[in-house]
Amino acid sequence: MRVSLIILMCLILLGACSGAKDIKDTLVPQDLAKMDTIKSAIEKLTPDERELAFGYIMRQTVGEKGGPGIPKGRTIGKAITEQQKFKDDAAIERAKQQEPKASEATSP
User: Fold this and answer.
1) Residue 69 and residue 30 in contact, taking contact as beta carbons nearer than 8 Å
2) Nearest to residue 24, comparing CAs of 47, 50, 3?
3) How far apart are CA 61 and CA 74, in angstroms?
4) Distance between CA atoms of residues 56 and 24, nearest Å
5) Which CA distances in Å does 48 have to 31, 42, 74, 97?
6) Quick check: 79 and 24 in contact, CB under 8 A?
7) For residues 6-25, average pLDDT
8) Residue with the larger pLDDT of the pair 74 and 12
9) pLDDT digit string, tens, across residues 16-62
10) Where are the domains of the chain?
11) What whole-number distance in Å separates Cα of residue 33 and Cα of residue 51?
């Protein structure tokens, strides 16, 4: 009886632990009308992560020419990673475009 109770408690504990999933594994809906379904997950992100997630969603859906849309199976974590890469690439591109202007300004 005691062993059965211990096993049962272990199973309950294991089930409770495995049920907790990372909020970044939450799928981003492809339909803008369903974005409220991820509201609680978005609220648990850090302010920087939240900004990146919103930036990704905006760029993919409303951006230039309507955006390409959100790919099926895209998670919040992947959206954050992709938006950070997009921002980093844009900063590098801006820096490259500024290089010729800076060297022209210093030329005699």
Assistant:
1) yes
2) 50
3) 13
4) 14
5) 24, 11, 19, 27
6) no
7) 60
8) 74
9) 444 446 999 999 999 989 999 999 999 999 999 999 999 999 999 98
10) 22-106
11) 19
* Residues 23/76, Cβ–Cβ less than 8 Å: yes
Q: How far, in Å, CA of 44 to CA of 69, rounded? A: 24
pLDDT beyond 80 at 108: no
Residue for token digits 């294991």?
14
- Which are the contacts of 93, defined by CB distance < 8 A and separation ≥ 6? none
What is the phi/psi pair of residue 41, to 5°?
-70, -45
pLDDT of residue 105: 58
* Beta-bridge partners for 75: 27
Residues in the chain: 108
* H helix intervals, 1-108: 2-19, 39-43, 47-61, 76-106
pLDDT in tens, 67-96: 889 999 999 999 999 999 999 999 999 999
